Amino acid sequence: MYQTILVPLDGSKRAEAILSHVESIAKSNHAKVFFLKVEEVPIMLERDEVIDIAKYHEEFDEQNARSQAYLDDLQARFHEKDIHAVKQLAFGSVVKAILNAAAETGADLIAMATHGLSGLARVSYGSVAAGVLQAADIPILLIRSCSDQKEETCGS
């Protein structure tokens, strides 16, 4: 049924709550898993603010290296389970990058947790999940995630 599953992640345990579900769906459908991590590029300066551009580039490169290592680890874990997995690091608006990746990869399912790094308990689902849910034209599997200390999903 599903051939390509797009899995947006932000590196948090909350976001990874979706992985066991993705593994099961991918195995039963012989689907390819496409891991996506999106880095927002915040370069909004105040009126008189000056930044150390060399330090900014250094921190940006370090974050990219951490993100690539994270994606490499996920890809290797799925390959060990005989699941074809690919990865991509994108930059910019998270919702827009997810929707673009879904279109570019031909994904027929987006699978993600409702809350990532922010983990705001006061909303029923996260702003990224809400944005994707509103704009996507393919099926979406949303898993409500628990606290960072737990790796299972919460009940309704």
Provide key terms for this protein.
5 strands, globular, 4 helices, 5-stranded parallel sheet, alpha/beta
Descriptive overview:
The protein has 156 residues and is of the alpha/beta class. It contains four helices and five strands; from the N terminus they run βαβαβαβαβ. A five-stranded parallel β-sheet has the order 3-2-1-4-5, with helices on both faces. The longest helix is centred in the middle third of the chain and has 28 residues, at 53-80. The chain starts with a strand and ends in a 13-residue tail after the last strand.
Sequence stretches where pLDDT stays below 50 over 5 or more residues: 118-125, 148-153
Extended strand count: 5
How far apart, in Å, are the first and last alpha carbons?
26 Å
SSE string, helix = H, strand = E?
EHEHEHEHE
Question: Strand content of the residues, in percent?
Answer: 15-25%
Tally of separate helices: 4
* Helix proportion: 25-40%
Break the fold down into its secondary structure elements and pairings:
Elements: E1 4-9, H1 19-29, E2 32-39, H2 53-80, E3 85-91, H3 94-105, E4 109-113, H4 127-135, E5 140-143
Parallel strand pairs: 1-2, 1-4, 2-3, 4-5
Helix pairs in contact: 3-4
